[in-house]
Design goal:
single chain; about 375 residues; OB fold (Dihydrolipoamide Acetyltransferase, E2P); Rossmann fold; Ribonucleotide Reductase Protein R1, domain 1; 3 domains; 6-stranded mixed sheet; 5-stranded mixed beta barrel; flat
């Protein structure tokens, strides 16, 4: 396996030029645990590696640390010594969401991803509002969006067609495919987005058939799966760790644990890009600072009342805007806390330095 087959390009070659002179070797991270990483080298050899303390300390946020899909420079340890990540190469794209819970930090799902594939179905898992969130995050990441309407064998053609149309209306650039992982249908369409050097990330709720698709794409039982529960229609297996898997047919796949939360990690520009129709209406509001709720002369609310804008889409827009505002507020609080910590740490260091200088003077008999 060559570096190019792993996604290596000229930009990475340029970024790595100075590091190669230090005896470091390039590698791509394929798995991460709480204590170390697994990485692939140029010849396809898989190694375990740890992160050097300098990179740990330099990371302001958890999202700055290496993640699955990242390219790194590794110092290869001698026999009995650990292999150590000494540098992280620039990311071309990064797909992330807000970390679950009350945290204001981002959780990196995968780095250097070319295609993000969302797996859903036309039944209980189908949720237009959730798809809006997915598209907003994918758009911000810089990756291409693909949607798989899986389990086609469980739904009628009319249900599948309606669901596909709703998804396409949200993001006309997204490719939508109807598949059945159980029957192996639609794999040709999925593979059309994969070729040597490209990386696809597969996301979606637990039980929609992601692991079965990974098994079929990989050509082996890479992920263990079980039978589908007849009552819920969901598989009992869920992926337990994030992992990059090279495919024999070309390209790479990042499978993810099922996502129960799709909280926003984005900005106002991305929000507006995902709701261009709503933003066009907002420009017609009577007041520039219209909250689009109870303000007089609100063009968005008028469009809802006249049946021009879907009420559910209007509510989703308000919810996303509120969520981003809350995220920004939490981030500001965290920044203030970090600044206070740095000031306190600086004062402690200064005080310790003064104490050390005084001790040295005392030792020399100086007053």
């Amino acid at each position: 396996m060559t570096l190019q087959e792993l996604g290596w390009n000229q930009e990475l070659e340029t970024a790595f030029s100075n590091l190669s002179e230090k005896g470091l070797v390039p590698a791509r991270l394929i798995r991460e645990t709480s204590i170390n990483f697994s990485a692939l080298l140029e010849d396809g050899e898989e190694i375990d590696t740890i992160l050097c303390g300098r990179l740990w300390n330099a990371a302001v946020l958890d999202s700055d640390l290496p993640a699955v899909g990242d390219w790194v420079a590794i110092h290869m340890g001698k026999e009995g010594e650990p292999h150590v990540i000494r540098a992280q190469l620039p990311r071309r794209t990064v797909f992330s969401r807000k970390m679950p819970g009350n945290s204001s930090q981002a959780q990196v799902i995968g780095a250097n991803i070319d295609v993000v594939t969302v797996v859903t179905d036309a039944g209980s898992d189908f949720n237009v509002r959730r798809m809006e969130r997915y598209f907003a995050l994918i758009h911000r990441s810089g990756a291409k969006a693909v949607v798989l309407l899986n389990k086609s064998d469980l739904f009628s053609k009319e249900e599948l067609k309606e669901a596909a149309a709703e998804i396409s209306a949200l993001s006309p650039d997204a490719k939508v495919h109807i598949t059945s992982a159980l029957k192996g249908e639609g794999l040709k369409a999925i593979k059309s987005h994969l070729k040597p050097g490209l990386t696809m990330c597969i996301v979606g709720s637990s039980g929609v058939g992601k692991s079965t698709l990974v098994n079929q794409l990989y050509g082996d039982e890479w992920q263990w799966t079980s039978e589908v529960n007849e009552t819920t229609g969901k598989g009992r297996h869920t992926t337990t760790c994030r992992e990059l898997v090279p495919l024999e047919s070309g390209g790479m796949l990042i499978d993810n644990p099922g996502m129960r939360e799709i909280q926003m990690w984005t900005d106002e520009d991305t929000l507006r890009g995902s709701f261009e129709d709503v933003e066009q209406l907002s420009s017609q509001c009577k007041f520039s600072d219209c909250s689009h709720t109870n303000d007089a002369g609100c063009a968005i609310r008028k469009a809802v009342e006249e049946g021009v804008l879907d009420p559910a889409r209007y509510e989703s827009y308000l919810n996303l805007e509120t969520e981003i505002a809350a995220l920004r507020k939490r981030a500001k609080k965290r920044q203030m806390a970090v600044e206070r910590w740095h000031k306190r740490n600086h004062r402690v260091k200064a005080r310790n330095l003064d104490d050390r200088i005084q001790l040295e003077k005392d030792a020399r008999g100086e007053i």
